[in-house]
Design goal:
By secondary structure, the chain is mainly α. Helices cover 64% and strands 0% of the residues. It is built from six helices and no strands. The longest helix has 31 residues. The chain is rod-shaped.
């Protein structure tokens, strides 16, 4: 307990002091400092060698950290081409998907919606051929039905469901 006073250490017995020194000699340097602090409760000033070693370890750790960071940056730079290629492929894919979506939307909007189980069938255009035409408009007969034309027009515009 009274390690600071030399006279009292000699009186208490040399066995304890000698035992402590043997344990410290076997332990590594870092453990020595911790053992001294734990046992004595009083901090001993660090020697020049301890300070130098600590500073050396600190510089080595910083150097390793810098090298590790540099290595990570180099690998990222080497992957840069592949990353750019992946990004370009993604952009091309998204552009193609957008074009497909637009085409599908145009196709959907161009025709009538499916309002029932039946599909819309456009009306056949009735045209007279040139040999069926007469020179006189009075002799011309009406083709198709006005009611049927209106009905198909309303189906095409989704005003009436297809039946």
């Amino acid at each position: 307990m009274s390690e600071g006073i030399v006279e009292l250490n000699a009186d208490e017995g040399n066995t304890e002091v000698d035992g402590d020194e043997d344990e410290e000699a076997d332990a590594p340097e870092g453990v020595e400092e911790e053992d001294d602090v734990k046992k004595s409760g009083v901090l001993k000033p660090k020697t020049r060698r301890q300070k130098r070693d600590k500073r050396k370890r600190m510089f080595e750790e910083q150097k390793k950290a810098r090298e590790r960071d540099l290595k990570i940056k180099e690998t990222e730079i080497s992957r840069l081409k592949s990353i750019k290629k992946e990004l370009k492929a993604d952009e091309v894919q998204s552009a193609e998907n957008e074009e497909k979506r637009k085409a599908a939307l145009e196709k959907k909007m161009s025709g009538p919606l499916k309002l029932s189980n039946y599909n819309y069938e456009p009306q056949e255009i009735e045209i007279k051929l040139s040999d069926e035409l007469t020179g006189n408009l009075r002799n011309l007969k009406q083709e198709g039905s006005l009611l049927e034309d209106r009905f198909k027009s309303m189906q095409r515009r989704n005003m009436i469901e297809v039946r």
